[in-house]
Amino acid sequence: MINRNQLLTLLIVFAIIGTAPFLITRESTLNTVILILYVALLGQAWNILGGYGGQFSFGHAAFFGTGAYSVAVLQLQYGINPWIGLFIGGLLAMGVALFIGFASFRYGLRGSYFALVTLAFAEVLRILSNSVSFTGGGVGILIPLSRDPANMQFANNVGYFWLIWALCLACFLTVWWLGRSRFGAWLQAVRDNEDAARALGVDVFATKMKAAALSGFFSGLAGVFYAQFYLYLDPAIAYGSAVSIESLLVPIIGGMGTLFGPLIGAAVTHLLAETTRHFVGDVPGIALAIYGLLLILVVMFLPRGLISIFGRIGGLFGSRRAADA
Amino acid sequence: MLEVDGITKSFGGLKAVDGVSLSVKQGSLVSLIGPNGAGKTTFFALITGFHRPDGGTVQFDGKNIMGAKPSDIAQAGMVRTFQIVQPFAGQTVRENIAVGAHLRHASRRDALDRAAEVAEKVGLGDRLDMDAASLTVAGRKRLEVARALATDPKLVLFDEVLAGLNPSEIRDVIPVIRAVRDSGVTILLIEHVMQAVMQLSEYTWVLNQGRLIAEGPPRAVAADKAVIEAYLGPGMAARLSAQAKREPAHA
Ligand SMILES: Nc1ncnc2c1ncn2[C@@H]1O[C@H](COP(=O)(O)OP(=O)(O)OP(=O)(O)O)[C@@H](O)[C@H]1O
Ligand SMILES: [Mg+2]
Question: Closest to A199 (Cβ–Cβ): which among B72, B80, B111?
Answer without folding.
Answer: B80
